[in-house]
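Limitations
The structure tokens in this dataset are predictions for the assembled complex, not deposited experimental models. Users should treat interface geometry with appropriate caution, especially where small molecules or nucleic acid strands are included. An illustrative entry is reproduced here so readers can see what is and is not provided.
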Amino acid sequence: MTRSDLHRIPTTLADGRELIYFDDVTADREPAKDTRDLPQVEHHSTARFDVLTGEWVTLAAHRMNRTFLPPADHCPLCPTREGREPTEIPDASYDVVVFENRFPSLARSVPDTEPYVDDTPLWPQRPANGRCEVVCFTSDHDSSFTQLPLSRVRTVIDVWADRTAELSALSGIAEVFPFENRGTEIGVTLEHPHGQIYAYPFLSPRSAQLLAQAQAHHERTGRELIRDVLEAEQAAGTRVLVQGEHWTAFVPAAARWPIEAHLVPHRQVPDFAALDDAERDELAALYHDLLQRFTAFFGEEPPYIAAWHQAPVGEGRELTRMYLQLFSLRRAPGKLKYLAGSESGAGAWIGDTTPEAIANRLREVAS
Amino acid sequence: MTRSDLHRIPTTLADGRELIYFDDVTADREPAKDTRDLPQVEHHSTARFDVLTGEWVTLAAHRMNRTFLPPADHCPLCPTREGREPTEIPDASYDVVVFENRFPSLARSVPDTEPYVDDTPLWPQRPANGRCEVVCFTSDHDSSFTQLPLSRVRTVIDVWADRTAELSALSGIAEVFPFENRGTEIGVTLEHPHGQIYAYPFLSPRSAQLLAQAQAHHERTGRELIRDVLEAEQAAGTRVLVQGEHWTAFVPAAARWPIEAHLVPHRQVPDFAALDDAERDELAALYHDLLQRFTAFFGEEPPYIAAWHQAPVGEGRELTRMYLQLFSLRRAPGKLKYLAGSESGAGAWIGDTTPEAIANRLREVAS
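Predicted assembly:
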């Protein structure tokens, strides 16, 4: 379903990592060579099973020395420009570009590990094989996703679809998770507008939780959980922000973040790759609209996390569907929501507003 | 098991909240009257069931206006001193004091709610009845738990035991959770050395997870999960920090925070109230020691969360035991661990060190 005017041009970086240009404006690229003398980063990512929670925790000790907020003229996500140090992107310009993270949490070909920590069956461990990709949304360092033209948002959706299809096909991948962290307040280490894609070798804890809930709901009712949630939100209407032909955006009934919205497809579509053209077009418009509202809500672009939950690659795929969870830790201008004892220690979330109040405000600020 | 030289003197604040002095030095207190004209804070805390995760989320809209980092001379946790505005503590001095939070997340006598959000059975809701208490560890505004003398740490343990017993006996309480948030970097709104106790009307998500794991382990092996974890850590030895007669401290095999230690009792003891004198004495010494190591690790007191997990008040109580989870978000001086897309969105934790490296460092810095 990728548009025919999107040009996909793969190349390879000096240390063997894959890089793909996705050109929606630029025509006829002949990719430049990566001239850097780049040492190989050794990956020793290991996932350990936490028997107290039933979750996998990834340890990636090689990430300790990753790049942290470099000055703008050393941004590794800008194109490589004449007279400046080469960046991660060898070409002098790009539209959208994807490449493998140099300091990945989940890596290709991690060496084998012992099956258990300290030979103790209580503590299974495994190589954290997977893949972490960086997606640069624009070559303009000072822009942001919120400021992209709609046509570019549409391109990024095609890119997410391309990457989801390709990463899902790699052996051992259980889930493909595209996301964007925006804002230094949530620890973004590079300011250049970009997102990431993690291809996990296990189901993420959030997806495992959702799948367990969806499974139980299906056994009880014979129905798909997210469909029922979507229809209930549409019927109640109290938290709906916008209802399109293919997607509906709403503040969820039990929102846990100070500002949170879900954008859910009307069809049971597992991931980006399975979206048709009409769904992609409308998604571009509605996601763009949601980001504008988040900005209007605070009077400036807030820090946010855009989490694109997709159905598992394997088992359980038919029980759920893709959806966007867009949220911010900002409670009010200058005030962050902190995850302290109750949230971080006990996992018990306390909010100081209501989903209906947030929905009202997000409706008021619609442009 | 509370020491006979600890004097427990209850009184009532102007708005009816309970306050209890626990004096370990002061003798013969006649509690002063709270002279403030204090309006009642209306509590409308509601818990909503998040069907996508299976967790309860609490909404406490009245907390939006709580006190936020007041100047030291307006600290509401200092004693009420001659010529200054009255504080939350009417007396001119105290040793340790506990009182009900004025802006509680979980409150007494919350009005009834409709059983479902928008009459939709997918979204159960309930009044968030419970109790939130503040525990002031010392009247010295500029001190910290780490700087307390051992005798005071022992008093606080008795106070936690007293409160656990009393709060567990309230109707509808499923879990009592004492914790301390330390450091403005994790959002502490009052600098005065203090902790909190939440009495939840539901099992916290973390405890529910642990209970599910403990239940599965028990069905498989007939044994208690935390006992097996404790014995495996002792046998491996690679992450043990200190092993006493009644308690062992270790960095857990699948630690998820940049620095994290667990302190686990050797006996299957459900909560503070059930600890005997010898266990309390050793706990005071070992907890004090752990906090000193955290400080030495960073060269200064780091932000931290001390989460005292206790067994459920009701069902499942025999399957688990109390333990301390002490952790910091600080990765290195000036560097915080942020919970971004992978952690906050997907629940998949990525660390950039190993539990063994943290344990080695925490052993080196032992005083």
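Some entries come with short summary sentences. For this one: The mean pLDDT of chain B is 93.
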